[in-house]
Amino acid sequence: MELTAAGLKAYDGSDDGKPIYVAIKATVYDVTAGKGFYGPGGDYCMFAGKDASRALAKMSKSEEDVTGDLDGLTEKELGVLDDWEKKFQAKYPVVGRVV
Would you place residue 11 in the very low, low, confident or very high pLDDT band (cuts 50, 70, 90)? Predict the structure, then answer.
């Protein structure tokens, strides 16, 4: 499945009838199993329905960091992002890509 950033936003957990998606490096994961974390009121709800690459790389929950833009990240931050990507790959199914 291919989703635009606007299309991804529809899977932010606000509609109980839809799954919750989070993207990392444009790969979309179904994180519904982690609803307690990514659903409304969860510790990581700001990532739901978005590409959270930059925020995960920077270990940030700041709204301005919740983007797929990797420009200016340090090697260390990119390494942190790679670690997050591996965790998501092991835990959540891939359902598509952000285009």
Answer: very high
Spell out the domain ranges in the chain. 2-98
**Rounded CA separation 10/72 (Å):** 29
pLDDT tens for each residue of 21-66: 999 999 999 999 999 999 999 999 999 999 999 999 999 999 999 9
With 0.85 as the threshold, say if the pTM is over it. Answer: yes
Does the domain formed by 2-98 have CATH 3.10.120.10?
Answer: yes
Cβ-based neighbours of 98, under 8 Å, separated by 6 or more? 2, 3, 4, 5, 8, 23, 26, 27, 28, 51, 68
Asked if 95 and 85 count as a contact pair (C-beta separation under 8 A), the reply is no
Contact predicate 22/52, CB 8 Å: yes
